[in-house]
Amino acid sequence: MKNKIEYWKRLRESGIGNDLLILPGANVFIENAKGEILMHKGFSHDFWRNIGGLSDDNESLWQCGTREVKEETNLDVKNLVPFAIRDDPNLKNKKYNIFLHSMSFWTKDYSGKIVMDKTEIKELGWLDLTDEKYKFRKGTQRFVNAFLEWKKTGRFQYITNRGK
To answer: Which of 24, 72, 125, 146 could cysteine-pair with 84, CB 3.0–4.6 Å?
Structure first.
């Protein structure tokens, strides 16, 4: 919920300090009838990113994904299909000392009118992810690559750099 302090921030304030936090999260690739995926740009960068975020306390990954979609786009999503998990210690968020485990979901089953969360997002767009004109950050590009591979092969994707 937008009106309460995010779970990971409450953990920091509870006395954990700046120790490493290992947190779950989810992102959702929403596909329209043209095969385009809904992505967004934030205020701090000019890169496209997927819709998603960190889980709140007592929230499943599915619940996290559906909540994040609702918060960021106002859309309701159903029938989420997991297609990848990211488990990459090399992608730690060094600024906040957070290591993220994230589940990626896909759906074509959405409803509602898009209303952008203007506190977090400066632009929403339906993108053809195979078009090289779109710029993604390294972490987002890994999700995009996993999504495209999953669409091609139907095999669940594991995003990691372990052992490298």
So the answer is: 146
